[in-house]
Amino acid sequence: MQRVRPAGVAILAVLEICLGLFSLAGGALAVAGAGLSGFTGLVFLTGLLVALGFLLAILGILFLAVGWGTWSGQGWAWTIGVALSIIGIITGLISLAAGTAGSIVGLILQVLILYYLTRPHVKAFFGKGAIAPVQPVQPAPPLTPSS
Asked: Most exposed of 10, 31, 50, 67 (fewest Cβ within 10 Å)?
């Protein structure tokens, strides 16, 4: 039986893949910046940029993997998505308490993503739950002629 990918899952997968590509590009730029800062003699800055570059590259690879897992309906990708949403909600609440501008938008977004990922049809796509089978309709009793 062919599973149908919900549209929201496709959107989340594409966003995760885009985040992965942007993270990889940011990592490459940071390492390139480290190479340029090496000419100025700022060793600390060079080391910091290299570390940032490698961190962004690792995050990029992880985002690409989760994006592929989300696209293909892997159960582990659903688990990671739920965990990241919960972490996002917690950090959003902390940011909101600190008065960071724009934190309410991120918080609302994470709550909506968590809500969406826990819908029965989405969980079923990831193999984390089954859509309740449709109960067969009982046929009406045959009409008997009245006497």
From this structure: 10
Domain count, the chain: 2
Residue 25 to residues 18, 53, 80, 95, Cα–Cα distance (Å) = 11, 9, 23, 27
Amino acid occupying residue 120? P
Convert the pLDDT of each residue in 120-145 to its tens digit: 999 999 999 765 455 556 666 777 77
The amino acid present at 137, given as its one-letter code, is V
> Domain range holding 58?
7-72
- Tell the burial category of 84 from Cβ atoms under 10 Å away from its Cβ (0-12, 13-18, 19+): middle
121 occurs within a structural domain: yes
89, 112: one domain: yes
